[in-house]
Amino acid sequence: MMYLMLWEANESALPSDPDEARKLNQSMREVVKKNIENGTIKMWGISPEGQHGFVIRGEEDGKTLLAGSLS
Fold first, then answer.
1. pLDDT tens digit at each of 71 positions of the chain
2. Which region holds residue 55: left if phi is over 0, alpha if psi is between -120 and 50, else beta?
3. How many domains is the chain partitioned into structurally?
4. What is the model's pLDDT at position 32?
5. CB–CB of 52/45 below 8 Å?
6. How many C-beta atoms lie closer than 10 Å to residue 57's C-beta?
7. In terms of residue numbers, what domain contains 35?
8. Strand (E) positions, the chain?
9. d(CA 71, CA 67)
10. How many CA atoms lie within 13 A of 67 on its CB side?
11. Which of 15, 42, 62, 70 could be joined to 20 by an S-S link, Cβ 3.0–4.6 Å?
């Protein structure tokens, strides 16, 4: 089964320093890239402004997926 997850960035939780924000974004993109390579994430997208996006995941049961999204 495939799962569509929509996400939205919480700007108040992001670092105000542009360099710190860039480092955080880069580390998150690396995690996404690894998950795409290992097949956990099937497809990923981000809006042009970088504040909204989607993830299509599969090969997990719904309970595991929900627990991971809440942590």
1. 888 989 998 988 889 999 998 899 899 899 999 989 998 899 999 999 888 999 998 777 777 777 766 65
2. beta
3. 1
4. 92
5. no
6. 20
7. 2-70
8. 2-8, 41-46, 52-58
9. 7
10. 5
11. 15
